[in-house]
Fold each of these.
Amino acid sequence: MHEFSIVQDLLHMCEKNAQENNANKIKKVEVKIGKLSGVEPHLLQTAFDTFKEKTICDGAEFVIHVQELVVGCRKCEEESVLEKNTFVCPKCGGDVEVLDGEDMYLMRLEME
Amino acid sequence: MCKDCGCTIAPHAHTHEHGGHTHDHGHGHGAHTHSHEQHPNPQLNDPKTIEVITKILDVNDTQAAHNREHFEKHGALAVNLMSSPGSGKTTLLEATIDHGGVKLGVIEGDLETNQDADRILAKGAPAHQIATGQACHLDAHMVHEGLHHMPIDGLDVVFVENVGNLVCPASYDVGTHFNVVLLSVPEGDDKPAKYPVMFRTADVLLITKCDLLPHFDFDVEKAIKETRKLNPKVDVIEVDSKSGKGIDTWVNYLKMKQSLR
C-alpha cells in the first residue's frame, strides 16, 4: 500500500521544517488524515514507526487526527458531516462541495 | 538538550563532562556561556511547537502542476487511466489507436515488464514504460520522468496508464487534466461502493467489456447510480474494446476535450 510512500514525503517535510527552525530533534508529529484521503490511519502509524528510525523523527510521537468528511451545501449553505458516502446535502439534498476530509495534512511539529 | 541547565545543542555537538553533570553542547560560541541572549545565532532553547498545515503530498502536487504545464505547452490533453488490473486499460488504448482520429502517446506504469508499452508501440504509437518495482501507484515525479522519454509535440492526447489498483493511485495527482476510471463487467457492479475514494476521483466512468453483460449479473444502472452517489457529475461511457462498441463515443469525447485545451 502507499502508506510507506506517504510517510517518506512526511519525513522529508519534517526534516525541512526542522532545518528551517534550527531544530535538532522532532518530538511530536501531528497529522490530519481525511476519512476519504485513501489512507488507513493504523497502516500510516506502522509505516511512520518503521521509517522514523535514524531520521530527525527518531523517537517522535505520532498523533493522527482523523478528519470527518465535511461538506458545504451550495443551495442551503449549511455545513454538514457526511456519515455515508453519498455526496448530497443531508439537510436539503442540494449539491455539495467538500470542505474537509479528503486530504492529508501535516498540522503541527514539536521540536527542540 | 541538557536537562540540568537547559542549554542547547549546536552543530558539531559533542558530549563532555564538567561540573559533575553531563551534557551536550556545541563549539563556535567563543567563550562558552549559558546566557542565551548572547548567542549570535540562537538555537531553539526549549521545545517549540510550530503550526505547519501543509498537505503531506505538497511536493507531489507541485510536480503535478509542473507536468500540466508541460502538456499545456504542447497543446496535449492528458488523461489518467485508472482501474483494477485486467479491466482493459491497454486494450482500450489499442482500440482507440485502431479507431483513429486522435494521435496519442502513452506513459505506462506497471510493477514489472514492458509488455504494455510494447503493445502500444506495436500499434505504431509512442509509449514509455515506467517499471515501478514494488510501488503500487504512479506519482507526479515518475510521470515527469516518463515525459522526458515521450515526444509530446504533435500528440493530441497523452495517456498515463496507471498501475492496476483501485486504491493507491487515487491519492496522487499525476498532473493530468482528468481521470478516467474503468470498471469492467466481470468485476461486478459493487466496486464503486467498495472503493469510494477511487470512484469519487473519476471524471469519466468507462464501463468496459460490455459485450459480456449477458453472461454476468452486472447491473449497469446500479453501477452508475453508486458512482454518482460519490460523484454526481461523473460522465459515463459504455464500451467494448473488442467489438468496438462505444469506442466512437469515447474518441469523440477525447476530441471534444482536447479541442478545449
Note: The CA atoms of residues 32 and 65 of chain A lie 5 Å apart.
Amino acid sequence: MIRPADCLVLGAGPAGTEAALAAAEAGLDVVLIDEQADAGGQGWRAPLSGLTMPRKGADAEAGDGLRARLAASGVDRRLGRRVWSVGGAFRLDAVGPDGAEAYEAPRLVAATGAHERVVPFPGWTLPGVIGLAGATVLLKAQAVLPGRRVVVAGAGPLLFAVAAGIIAKGGEVAAIVDMDGRLAWARRLPGLARRLDLLKEGLGWTWSILGARVPFLAGHGVRCAAGRSEVEAVIVGPVDADGAPIAGPERRFACDALAVGHGLVPGGEVPKILRAAHLYDRLRGGFIPELDPYGRTTIENLYACGDGTGIRGARPSAVAGRLAGLAAAHDAGRLDATAFTALAEPTLQALADYRPFADTVAGAMALKPAQVAAITPATVVCRCEDVSRAEIDAAVDAGAGDINQMKHFTRCGMGPCQGRMCGDVAAELVAQRRGVTRETVGYWTQRVPLRPVPFDTMIGSFDYADIPIPPPAPL
Amino acid sequence: MSLVRVSNGVTRPAAATFAVDGMEVSAPAGEPLATALAAAGLLGLRDSPRGGTPRGAFCHMGLCQECVVTVDGRIVQACLTPVRAGMQVGLGGTLR
C-alpha cells in the first residue's frame, strides 16, 4: 500500500517538524516520518513513555511545545518508522509496526539531522565508552547516568551539557577533559553573547560544574581508555590549540564510563543518494548539500534543512525548517508570491540573527585536523570492520585515491553502521596522507538500504501465487 | 560497571522480567534494551567480528550497530528495542 501525499518530510526533529507544520498550514497534505516514537529529534527528545522526571530542562520544554503544535496540526505523523529506501521523485520505503510501508509525493524535505563524531583513540571500542550525544539521550530521555563514576571528554558544548546533566541527577563526574583551552572559550564569548538566552544555559552548566568541584582539565585530550573487558580508567594529557597532543604530565582517572565526543557530522544521506550537489564545509561539520536561502537543493522539489545541512543547533534548525516548509508550499502553488514573501522574510531574518551564535557553536564542534593526524597507527578507526589507521595509510600508499577506493581496499566503512561512525575521520586521514583536499577525497557513495532492515520484513509475506509471472517471450 | 537509573523524584513504568541467555533480568517496561542490559551490568554485548574485541552500546541512538543482540531469534539493535516481559535475549555471535 502506497500512501500518496503532497509533501513528505523525513525526520521529525526541530527542522523537519517545523517544515511539516509550515507546509501543512499552507494547505499541503504532509506526511512526517521518523524512526523515533515521538517527534523532537535527538536534542528535543521526549522522555520515555511512562517516565516522569522532577525537573524539565529548556530542551524538554521546547520539545513539548513542538510536539503539542504537531499534535494540533493536520500533519500525518508516521513515527516509529524506519525508512530504508528513498528514490524516484519521490518515494520512501519504510518498515513500520505492521511491516512494509511506502510513501509517495512530488516533494520531499530531508531533515535527517546529525550524528556524533568521535575521533578514535586506543580503547575507544571498550564497553562503557559512549558518545556524548548518547549520554544526553540517557540523561534527558531515560533518567539514566552513564556510570557510577564518569569521565566526560572531548570538545564543544555537549561536554558541559553532559557533565552538568550528570551532576544535576546526582551522579559523579570523575573529570571533565576539554580539548579547548580557556582562551578558546574566551574568544567565543562575543559570539555566544549574541544569544543571551542560550549563553545563560551554558553558564548554568558551568556554574553547576564549578559547584561540584569536578577536576576540570582545559586543553587536554584522551590519550587512551584502559580496561580488559570494560573501561576501567582514562588516561589524559595536554593538547595544543589545534588539538595535537603535546609533552606534559599525563593523568589517570579511574572510572566505569567515558562519555566522549568531538562534535557532530551532518547525516545527509538522502540528498546524497538523490544526487544533489554537495560542498565541503569544515565549520558546518563536513559535506553538506548546496542550498538556496530557503532550503532548496539542486534537485527540483527536494528540500533539506536542519543539522543534516550543516551543524547549527536545534533552534536555528527549527527556523530553517520553517523556511523549507514555506518554500515547498510556495513551489506547490499553495502560497502565492506575496504570502510567501510575507512569511519567509521574517523567518530569513530570524535565521540570520542566529548566525553568529550558530557559527561560534559550530566552530567549537568542527573537526580538528591535528587531532586526526595524531591518531596512532594501531588505533582502530572503523569499529565495524576493525580497520586500523595503519591499514588506511597503507591503502592510500598503495594507490587508494579517494574515500571509496580506500573503502574497497580495506573494508573501512563497509560494516553495518555504513560508515557513519568513521566516515569523517577516515576521509580526513586519506586527505592528509595524500596531501589533497577533502573535496578530492569525497564522501561515501550512498546506497540503500539507508538502515539495516530484516529482509523478510522488507518484502512482507506472500504466497507463490502472489508472485506476478510475466508471460513467456514469444518463440 | 553499569548504567545507573536515577531514583530521586523519577517514576518509571512497572518492571518487566525477561531472559538474557537464560538468565532472568528485570527492567522498567519500555526502557531501551541496551539501557536495561547495561543497568544489569551487562555492558559487553558481543565481540567484534575481526579483532574479537568486546563491544557494547556506543551511540545509544540507533546508528552504530554495536549493541546488536538477538530478541526472540531476530537480530535487533538493543538501543531501539523496548523491554517487554518474556522476551528472550541472546548476546554474542551476532553480526559476525
Note: The domain at 118-262 of chain A is CATH 3.50.50.60 (FAD/NAD(P)-binding domain).
Amino acid sequence: MKKFLILVAATAALTAAAIFTPALAQLRVDVTQGVSQPLPIAIPDFVGDPQAGANIAGVVRADLERSGLFRPLDQKGFVERITNINTVPTFGSWRSITAQGLVTGQVTQQPDGRLRVDFRLWDVYGESQMLGLQFFTTPENWRRIAHMVSDAIYERITGEKGYFDTRIVFISETGPAVKRVKRLAIMDQDGANPIFLTNGSYMVLTPRFNPTAQMIAYMSYIAAKPRVYLFDIETGKQEVLGNFPNMTFSPRFSPDGNRVALTLETAGNSDIYVMDLRSRAIRRLTSDPGIDTAPSFSPDGRQIAFESDRGGSQQIYVMNADGSGQRRISFGAGNNGTPVWSPRGDLLAFTKQQGGRFTIGVMRTDGSGERLISSGGRDEGPTWAPNGRVLMYSRSLGGGAGSQIWSVDVTGRNERRVLTPGSASDPAWSPLIQ
Amino acid sequence: MIRFSTSLKFAALSAVLVLGACTHKQEAVTTAPPPAAPAPPPAPAPVTSSIIPGSAEDLRVNVGDTVHFAYDQYNVEESDKALLGRQAAWLQRYPAVRVTIEGHADERGTREYNLALGARRANAVREYLVSQGVSTGRIETISYGKERPICTSSDEGCWAQNRRGVTIVSGGANS
C-alpha cells in the first residue's frame, strides 16, 4: 500500500519540447469513424539505458497496438538502426518497411538518480518531426512515463487526448460462484501493477473514481450492512458514506467531486439521493414506487441519467440534478439500464437486456441514435475512458465461470479483453491522472 | 411457473428430510425430480432427535426457510403463503428469535437493478410475516441481488432456485 502511494504521488515532471517543429501534419488518424487499417508505426527500443529503453518502448508499442489505431512494426525488419535521437532519421529506409510514423527515444540516468526520457515522433512521409518531449522521473516510475509518451503520440496523431496514463478500479473475483470472494482492486489501464485494496472478508461491488482519481466510492457488505463507502487511496482510509438506516448502493461522483449520487432502499423501494460531501446534506431526487437507481451525472453536473422501472420495465431516464424534469429517454426494445454519461457529454453508454442477451450500447442523450457495440451477450456495466472514445465493461462467462473485463471503441470496433489478475468485474476508468 | 417452483421447494424439503439434516440443500434441489402431484399440506414437523426445537436448524429443516419468486416479480406467491404462515407461527412460538430475510435475484438483470429487486423481495417476505403477527422489530432484511446464487447453470431450473427469499435466524434461537 505504502509503495503504491508513493508511486501515485510521484508525478512525472513534463518539461517543454526539445526541438518542436509544428509542421502541418500529414500523419493523422480519425478516431471518430474507427479504423480498419491501423497506422503502421515503427518504435525501436529507446537508446541509452538498454533495459529501461526496451521496457519503455515495449509499453508504448503495447499501448498503441491495443488502441486499434496503430500497428507497431516488428523491430526485426528495421533497416536503419537508431543510435542518436538528435540526428534526423533516414526517412526512405523507414518508408521501405511501410512505416508512416517513427518514434525514437533515449533513456539516460541522471547524476541525481532520476531517469531522463527524450522522444521524438517523426512523420516518415512528411519527413518532419511532429513532436519532441522530455520527461524526468524516478526509475521505478518508468511505466507511467511510457504511458505519457503513448498519450502524447496518440494526441499528436489523432487530435484527441490519450487515455493510457490512467488506472482502472475493479472487483477481483475468486472462488466458486456460490461462494464468490470479491475484493476491491486497482491496476493500470493495461493491467499492470494490480493492487488489492480490501482483503475479501466482505463483499464489495460497483467501485467508482472521483474526478481526481484519489477517492473511490463503492458498495460494501461490511458487517452484513450493505452501504456505500468512500476509500481514500492516499491514506488507505475507508469510511461509510452518511448514516443511512438501510441499504445504500450504486454510488457515482459528481464531475466536481463534491457530491455523490447514490440509491437508498427504504421498505423495499429504491430511490436516488445526492449527498454533498462537505456539508453531508442529503437531498432526495426521486420518490416514486418504482426502482430508481444507477445515477450518473452529465459532465457539466447539471443533469443525472438513471434507470427506473416506473413505466413497467427497466428503462433510462434523465432528470435535472435537483430531481426536477424527470423524463424517460429510452424507448428501444428490451430493458435498458446502467446509463453512464460520456466525459464528452455527447453520449450515454448503457446495458441493454433483450432476448436473454446483455449488450453494451450507446445512445445520444435524448435517447436517439441507439447503437450496440459489444458482442459478448453477457456484458454489463460500461465505463468510459476519459477521452470518451473507448469503453470497458464486465463480461460474465456464464455457468458460474466468473467474469472478465473487456474494452471496445465507441465505434464498436476493436473489442478485446483487458488482462486482469484472475476473474474481474465492475471496471471503472479513472480520469487522466494529474 | 408457480407450480414448478412449488414442486422444487417441496422436493427440496422432502429430500433433505430423507437424506438427513446434514445433506447439502443445493444438491438435493438439483437432483430431486419434481413430484407429479401437488405436494401435500405440510405435516407437523417430523422432528428428529438431533434438531433442537427453536433452533436455526429447526426453522431451516422443519419449518422451511426459502420462498421463490417469478421472474422480475416480488409478490409472495400463493403457494408460499402456507410456508410463511408456518414461519410466522414458529416465530411466535419462539419470541426471542430475530431473523434476517435475504432477498436474491437470478442472473437476468443488471447488478444494481438486482440489488433493488432483492430488496423488494426481502421486504415482501417481511411484510407477509408482519401481516401474520410477527413484530417488525424482529425482522431485518438484506439484499444480495444476483451476487449469491445457489445454482449456477444458465437455465430456468437454476434461475427459479436463485429467485428467492431466505429467512435466516440472526439471534435469540435455542442452540
Note: The radius of gyration of chain A is 23 Å.
Amino acid sequence: MPDLLLELFSEEIPARIQRKAAGDLKNLVTKKLVDAGLIYEAAREYWTPCRLTLDIRGLTTKSGEIQKERKGPSINAPKAAIDGFLHAAKLDDISKAEIATDPKKGDYYIIRTICHGRKAQEIIADVLPDIIYNFPWPKSMRWGVTSAKPGALRWIRPLHSILCLFSTNTESEIIDFEIGDIRSSNVTYGHRFMSSFKPIAVHRFSDYAIKLEKAKVILDANRRKEIILTDARNLSFAQGLNLVEDEDLAEEVAGLVEWPVVLMGEFEERFLVIPPEIIRLTIRTNQKCFVTRKPNEKNNLSNHFILVSNIEAKDGGKEVAAGNGKIVRARIADALYFWRTDQMPLPDLNRLSASAERFKLDLKKPLDQRMARLDHLHVTFHTKLGTQGARVTRIAALAAKIAPLVSINAKLVRRAAVLAKADLQTEVVTEFPELQGIMGHKYALLQGESKNVSQAIEDHYKPQGPTDAVPHEPISIIVALADKIDTLVGFWLINERPTSSKDPYALRRAALGVIRLALAQEWNIHLMPLLQEAVQLLICHLVEHNLAAYEQRLLSDNTSELNRVQDISNAVSLQKRKYEKELIAKANLVLQDLLCFFHDRLKIYLREEGTPYDAINAVLTPQTDNFQQIVRRIEALIIFINTDNGKKLLGCAKRAANILDVETRKKTVIAEMVKPTQFLRKEEIVLYNAIIKAEKKIAPILAEGDFSAALTSLASLREPVDLFFEKIQINDKDITIRANRLALLARVRALMIQVADFSKLAG
Amino acid sequence: MKEGYPVNLPEHLDPSHSFQGLILILQNYWAKYGCAILQPYDMEMGAGTFHPATTLRALGLKPWKAAYVQPSRRPSDGRYGENPNRLQHYYQFQVLLKPSPPDLQKLYLGSLQAIGLNTDLHDIRFVEDDWESPTLGAWGLGWECWCDGMEISQFTYFQQVCGIECSPVSGELTYGLERIAMYLQGVDSIYDLNFNGQTGRNRISYGDIFRQAEQEYSRFNFEFADTDLLYRHFIDAERECAAILAAGEPKEPGGLHLCVLPAYDQCIKASHVFNLLQARGVISATERQRYILRVRNLARQCGRAFLQTEAGGTYNAESAR
C-alpha cells in the first residue's frame, strides 16, 4: 500500500511550538483523510527548526463509497425555505429530493447522494490546501508581495516550499497543488550552512531521511535531544564536572538546531560570587546554555557551561565557544551589576519617607527602600483590588491577626509580611521574575534580618502546587496563609472565581495552599474569622474603587441635576454608606461560597491522600472551617468504625436512619419530643437513660475537640439500641406510642450526627 | 581582504579594526541591492524604527527600499561609561524593504559574509522574537539573529505599524553595530573599539569619542534632567502633534493630508521625553501604561494621516475602491 510524505519547509519556526505544530499537522491531515474515506496504517510527525514533516504509511489507494445526507426543511415549509434548500443543494426541482419522517418534526425533505470512491491522490490534493490555509498557529504572519492581497496565506514564518509525495515501493508521484505562489514538489533542502542549500529531490520517506542526514539535518527531534544530552554529559564528565540536567532546555535547544554540536565554554571564576540561581537563569534564559557543577557540590556551579552549536565549525568550534563565552561573561557581568545595585541605596530617599512611615520601614536598609518604592510608585496589583502597597498592608494586618492564635511573635510576622513583596522592586527580579521571593530572602539576610523572617519572604509564595513542599517555619506559614487568604477573598469579592476551564489567578492552587498550610502544623485555626477579617480589610478599598467610578460618572454626566460640587460630594458620601452596606451584606454569601470552594479542594486533596470519600462526607458539614480538626475527626472515625464496637454502632446507626427515612417518607407521625411517661417497656427506659447520659458526656468532650472520646462515648449506646431493636416492636398499634418510639430513635440519630453522619458511611 | 567584500576597501576600512569601515560596507552592500542610503534622522529617538523612513514608509502600498545608520538613545541604559556593554547612546544600522523580498534571509546572511563573519566558523542562528513596540502601535514576527550566542541583529516582518495592518508587509533588519564591531575587532569593551581604523597616534577609539558623553548623559538622564520641564515638554509635543495634524487635514474628502511629517516629529519627541522621565524613575507602573498609550495614540493618528499622503501610497485611483 502506498505512503504519503509531506514536508512544509519554512524559515525558522519558534522552538517552543514545533512539537505541537507537527502534532497538529498529523491530526488534521489524518482526520481529513479518514473523513474522506481513506484508511492508513501508521502516521508519524517530525520537525526541525525549518520544517514540519508528516510520514503516513499504508494508505488506501481509493476511498470507499460514502453516502452523504443533506437534511432539508419540512414538507410544509414556506416556498422560500424550500427554494433556498434547492439552491444550496444545486437541484432544480424538489421532486428530486426524498421525503423522510421524523417522529417529532414530521415529514421533511432529504437529499441522499452517493459519493463514489475517489483516488487517494485526488483527496490529498483536495484536503491539504485547506489545512495549510487554516493551520492553527498561535500567532501567524503574512509576508512578501502577496501579503497585500486579501486572503493571503498566513504561516508562522514565511513558507518556502511544500514537498508532497505519494509513493509505492516502485513508484513515486508528486501530489500537485498550489498554495499562494508555492507549488508542491519533490524537493527539500538541507542544512542552511553545512550543505549546499540546493534543492534535493527525493522519492519517499526512506531516502528523504537519509538524504537529509547527508545534508546535515537530523530529522528526529528526539534524536537531536538525545545527542545533546549524551554529549553534554560526556563533555562535562571529561572535564571532571557534572551537567546540571535540564529537560526543558534540551527540548528547546533541540528545536534550535538541525545538526547539534555540543561544546564547552567558560567564564571567570570571580563571577561565582553571584548566587547560583541567577547565574543559571542568566545562562539558561538568555543564552540557552547548560550549567555544570563540580562533583560533591550541591548548589554551587562551576565556571564552565555547555553550549550547543548548529554547525561543525572548521576550527573545531574554537571561535564559537570563545564567542559564547564572551557573551555569557557580559550577561553575568550584568547580573553581577544587578545583584550589587540591589544592595545599594536608592536615589531620592526623601520622596519615600511617607511610604516608609506607613510600613515602619528603615530607610537605611536596601530592601526596606525597595518596599517603600513599591508603595510610592503605586504599582498595581489588580485594577479592582488596588496597589501592591495596599495589598502588603492587608497581608501584614491579617498575618498579625493569625500570629497570636498560634502564639507566635506578631512583630516578627509583621516584619516578614512587610518585606515579602519588596524584591519586586529589585533589578534581579525585574530581569528574572521567577526569582521573586528567592532574591528577597537573600537580600534580607544580607541586611541583617533574622533567619526566619528572611526565610518567610521566600516561603510565603509556597506551596506552589500539590507537590511543592509546605514551609516549616511558623512565620513563613502565617505570611503564606495571609497572602493566599487575601488573594482568595479579594478575587471572590470582585466575582473573579475560577471557572472549569479558566483560573488565571491560580486560585485553586491558592486554596489548596491554604489547606496544606493549615494542616502543616498542629494548629487549631478556624478559617471563617480570618476570611471575615480579610473582607473587612478589603472592603475599605473596594468601596473607594467603586466610589471613584461613581464620582467620575457624576462629574461627566452633564444632564444630571447634580452639578454643584456640594451636591456631588453629598451624593458621594451617601453612596459610600450604600456601598459599604451592600458589600457587607454580600460578604456572608460570598464567604459561604468560598468556604464551599475550600471544601471541594479539601475533598480532592484528602482523597488523593487516600482518605475514603464516605468518611470525609460523614464528618464535613457546610460550616466546617477548621481543617486540622476535620482531618483528626476523619482519622478517629476511620479507626473507630474498624473496631468491633464501631462496626456494630455503625449498624445500629444505619438501621435507625433507615427506619426514620422510611417512616418519614410514609409520612408517619413522629413525636417532636420523647415523653418518658409513654414508655411501656424496660428497653425503652434503658435506651432513654443511656441517651441522656451520653448527651451530657459528649457535649463537653466535643467542645474540647476530643473526637475519639466522643466516639467512645457513643459506643455506650450500642447495647441499649441493639436491645431496643431486638425486643421492641416500633410499629405499635397505638399511634402515640409509635410516635414516641420513633422520637426516641430520632434522638439517637441527632446525638450521633453531632459527632459524625454515620448514614453517609459505606458498609 | 576577506572574501565577500563588495568593493576593494583600503586597510583602514577593514571592519576587523574599523568601526566606520563596518558601516561603509553595510551601506555599500545595501546600496548595491538598490536601497536609498539615508543619513540619520536629526532627532533623538529610542531606535532606528522611529525614523519616518521606517515607521511611516512601512505604511501604504508603495514599494520602498532604504538603509541608514540611526543613533539610538535609551536613557535608562546609561551606566556612566562604566559598563563595557551598555550605552545610553549607540548606533543601529537599519534596513527596510517593502515588500519583504522572498530571499531576505539569504540577503541578510550575505551582508554578514560581507562584513567578514564567516559562516564556516561562526554559528549563526535565528531565534524566535516576536517584536512589539507598544509606543508605535507596531508588531511583527521574526527573530533575534545570533552569532555564537550573541544577538547581533533583529529581523522582523512588520505586520502592523501605527495600529495599521501593513499591506504589503515590510522586512526590517536592525544591526547592532557596536556589538558586531566588538566581535569583529575582538575587544571586550565597546570603548576599546577602533573607530577610524588607524593605528598608533592616529587611532581614534570609540571611548575617545563617547566615554565622556556617556558619563555626562548618564548624570543628566538619571540625576539632572528637570522632570517638571520634561512633563511640560511631553504635553507640548502631544498638543503640537494634534494641532499640526488638524491643520493639515484634507480640504475635501479623499484629498491629500498636508502636514504629517512635522506632526510625526512631535510624536518622536514625546516618546523620547517619556523615556527620559522613565530614566528619572518618576513614572509609576500605571502611569507608564498611560504614557505609552498617549504616545501610541499620536503614532496612530500620524499613521492614519500618512495614508492620505502621496508617499503613503494609497492616494491613487486604485485605492479609491
Note: Chain B touches chain A at residues 61, 79, 83-86, 99-102, 105, 119-128, 130, 140-143, 147-150, 157, 159, 166-169, 171, 183, 188, 222-223, 281, 284-286 (CB under 8 Å).
